[in-house]
């Protein structure tokens, strides 16, 4: 596991390995019948395992769970991933930076948010371009497009984005909006995010507003206008 935590780093010792359970034992335990999707997933799982290098992933003869052999060296795993999926670099870099200090986070010595956003360029790349994030940004943009297509385009539109962060989702939305009748309020708890966004979205400045917003506060304490 990339960025794995050593047990003794967080103060726990004498942890024994959990036993393996095969599929039938799990099905009997939860008392459900396997669906066709289960069998399809098993076939897909077999194909994935078939083409994985044996030094990273091997299948137990009994097909037991938690019996996967893998490297314990996070740097070795990171190198392997980047060699085969170079487009995953931002995510791998972020996982390594955070994961290698996970013991500090678990013990409460380090703020995880500060680790994630220590390098805003990397964090921005993850939230904007990561292969797992891009589909979700596209879905949000698609929903916005549906809303726009069903409303009177002459009416004004106000959008409040909470926790906008690096603006990974924001960019996919702004390009679909008309600056003439739209007010887009970009909010986050950190001033640095707002400053970065003002530069990043300068071409949309006609409709942009930037504001600190901490939703952990009571609604009446927030400096946001009703509606």
Automatic annotation (TrEMBL):
Lineage: Eukaryota, Metamonada, Preaxostyla, Oxymonadida, Streblomastigidae
Domain of life: Eukaryota
Database matches in InterPro entries: SAM-dependent_MTases_sf (IPR029063)
Organism: Streblomastix strix
Name this polypeptide is given: Putative type I polyketide synthase
